[in-house]
Every structure is written in structure tokens, then in C-alpha cells.
Amino acid sequence: xxxxxxxxxxxxxxxxxxxxxxxxxxxxxxxxxxxxxxxxxxxxxxxxxxxxxxxxxxxxxxxxxxxxxxxxxxxxxxxxxxxxxxxxxxxxxxxxxxxxxxxxxxxxxxxxxxxxxxxxxxxxxxxxxxxxxxxxxxxxxxxxxxxxxxxxxxxxxxxxxxxxxxxxxxxxxxxxxxxxxxxxxxxxxxxxxxxxxxxxxxxxxxxxxxxxxxxxxxxxxxxxxxxxx
Length: 229
What we know:
Number of helices: 10
Oligomer: single chain
Helix content: 40-55%
Structural class: alpha/beta
Mean pLDDT: 87
Order of helices and strands: HHHEHEHHEHEHHEH
Distance between the termini: 88 Å
CATH class of the largest domain: Alpha Beta
CATH architecture of the largest domain: 3-Layer(aba) Sandwich
CATH topology of the largest domain: Rossmann fold
């Protein structure tokens, strides 16, 4: 005969055993949903082919303006995109970095890794980043599939960028107040084989955006369609 404590122990053990047995046997519905969702699945659901458009060029070359306008154009067409602007990323993810060569390299690495995750999520990612060194741009490209990385050189001459100088950075750099400024006392290495070259000082932003949209259409990243008015 079992006493009260023994009866309670048996009952508890029986209940825990039932729970264990139930938890170890997934339902048919749960088994059907136990599958890996891949990049291709997300791309198909979004109706687009994910990629990164990496705009590189001097400060004040027009990278951010072009990227902002391109993002709005793609969004208005119902496409799923995200803009990673170098200055914006420096306020958060890269706020601990300065402008030494090593810090610039780390900044580019972080942006590249973040862009890779967003592409894996099925998005069209726009990166507007000076990214002055070829080695770091090559390293960023290596994170993606061969057809996922579109390097865009915003080819605006230094003299034009200095004339624009919206933030006064060139003036301060010439005065020695901003050390290691790209184009002044830190080099910018021109891309050797970019997918696209935009002469932004000769072509309006709308024309630059239209060309990039055409590239995306031709590569099959987005459906072919008319630009919004």
C-alpha cells in the first residue's frame, strides 16, 4: 500500500512523463513547418532578386543624393530596399571608429557584413560610402554571390566636390583641421572595374537613378516597368 507522499510522487512522475512524451513528438503541422527558409524563398516572396548597389566616390560626389532618390523610386514601385549611408552608420554601428586607415577598413567591413545580412533577407541594399580603398571594396564584394554586388563609381572630380563642400569639410581639411581627409591627405583609389560609372557632375540625379534602375531591370533584380512620373 502506498502512503500519501508515494501516491503524489507516482502521480507527478506520470504527469511529467506524459508531458515529456507529448513534447518530444511534433504534430504533423509542426513537422511541415520545420524547414529552412532560404534567401531564394524570401526573394520569391518579395518578387525581386536581392543585391547590393555599392556607391563609392569622394565626399560630396553625390552618392547619398543618388541613393536617396533611388530608394524612393524603388519604394514607389513596391520594391523592398534599404539604404545604408556611411554617415548614418557612423552614428550607431560604427560610432566607436575614427578616420584612420584601420578604422575606415573596419567601418567598411561592418557595413559589408550588415549589407550581406540584408541581402540574405531578400532586400535590395543601397550602400552610400566613400570606401576609398580597393582592397576593402574587394573584401566587401567577396561577401556576396558573383551577381549580387554592383559597384557604382560616382565619378565627380575633386575640384567639383570641393566647390560643393556642403559640410565645409574640404575647407577645414585644407586648413589642417580635419586630418586624413579623403582626396586631400588620404588617397581615394579609383575603382578599376566597376559595374557602373556615373558622371554625376555632368548628369542630373534623375538620369543617374534612371540608369541604375535600368541596370537592375537588365540584370533581373527587379521587374521591368515604367518609372513613376
